[in-house]
Amino acid sequence: MTETRRSPLFNDNRVKLGVMAFNCSHGSTVTTADGAWPMTWEDNRALARMADAAGFEALLPVGRWKGYGGETNFNNRTFESLTWAAGIAAETSHATVFSTIHAPLVHPVAAAKMGATVDHISGGRFALNLVAGWFKNEFDMFGLEMRAHDDRYAYAEEWLSLVKRLWSAAEPFDLDGRFFSGRALWSEPKPLQRPRPAIMNAGSSPAGQAFSAAHADMNFVMLRQKDEGSDRAQIARLKTMAADLGRSSQCWIHGYVVCRPTRREAEDYLHHYVVERGDDVAVANMLDIFGVQSGTLEPAVMDAFRFHFKAGHGGYPLVGAPEDIVEELEQLSDMGVDGLLLSWVDYLGECRQWIEEVMPLMEAAGQRRPFAAEEPAAAKAL
């Protein structure tokens, strides 16, 4: 099959960029601070266009169906990620547009058809962020039972194998699997991208890492942040696991950004929205759902967990002046990080700041090439 990848995820920028979680109320910051993301379609469209015009490689939504309680009821208002991707795809021309799907909540036959539809709307820029499923409160909404942990990845593997077959099969086929069966299975049109749209996965357990190494083009990593050595080893292991299977896989992380004229100003604002205005109830609910119990971790470790989840859903801190942040990006790139999905408190204002103040420094440091939007095909024909 001839390879026709149109996604900028595979360009030669050393530090690739994306924006994440802006389809959800509050985005990634669990805070009551002024300016927290209210989440409207108008703002989603404006942010997507802004990032797209600046050359960002990725726009990634969260797959969320209900919130976490607390004063913010964090992420309670969300746009569904496949229909969101169709709308965002029609508003952009460069960035890869992801959908995040929890495999047990969307049948693979439907997902294959919807993903191919977005790929055509986008002109070949669709990508899939596949999640094995973990939020029991959402499973209860659908009347589904949570499988044992490793069985979730066995299910996701069969789910993904079926989607990929539907994206490539030249004739209808029958299937009798462990989790799925059907007769004369078929999906048309196929995606524009060959051999298929890109796939991301955030598996972190041994079963999750094995799944990601075998199937994902990008592993979405939550760095442990103990020290640089352990982060470097974590990334190296994930890439080695894929290489041992004859595959290559990028490593992406989530970075929450607080950029101000000085490091002190950035740290002061971080303290304001996390310590003074953070939603402790919502974060306690989140950590309980994630299975992080205070009885199994030292108090200082739990404090760090709570802080990072309020600051940016457990992401990596990019805090300081523009020069500080670009220096941190250089260290991350040296560790093997290929791309960052960014979030802010004020997505629109702070993304604009990133484009105007941080990206020129990234280009000067050789982390990215200057971006020039391609002329639309229709204009070239005139």
Report on the structure:
- The chain is an alpha/beta fold.
- The protein has a single domain, classed as Alpha-Beta Barrel (TIM Barrel).
- It has helices spanning 41-53, 81-91, 108-122, 136-142, 149-168, 206-215, 228-244, 263-276, 280-290, 299-312, 322-335, 347-364, 377-380, and strands at residues 16-20, 58-60, 96-102, 126-131, 173-176, 181-185, 198-201, 218-221, 250-259, 316-320, 339-343.
- The longest helix is centred in the middle third of the chain and has 20 residues, at 149-168.
- Residues 375-382 have low confidence and may be disordered.
Shape category: globular
- Strand portion: 15-25%
Mean pLDDT: 90
| Secondary structure tally, helices | 13
Structural class determined from secondary elements: alpha/beta
- Main beta-sheet strand count, sense and barrel state: 8 strands, parallel, barrel
Would you tell me which CATH topology applies? TIM Barrel
What's the CATH first level? Alpha Beta
- Overall structural domain count: 1
Radius of gyration: 20 Å
Strand neighbour order, sheet with most strands = 1-2-3-4-7-8-9-11
CATH superfamily: Luciferase-like domain
CATH architecture: Alpha-Beta Barrel
Q: Outline the low-pLDDT stretches.
A: 375-382
Helix fraction by DSSP (H/I, runs of at least 4)? 40-55%
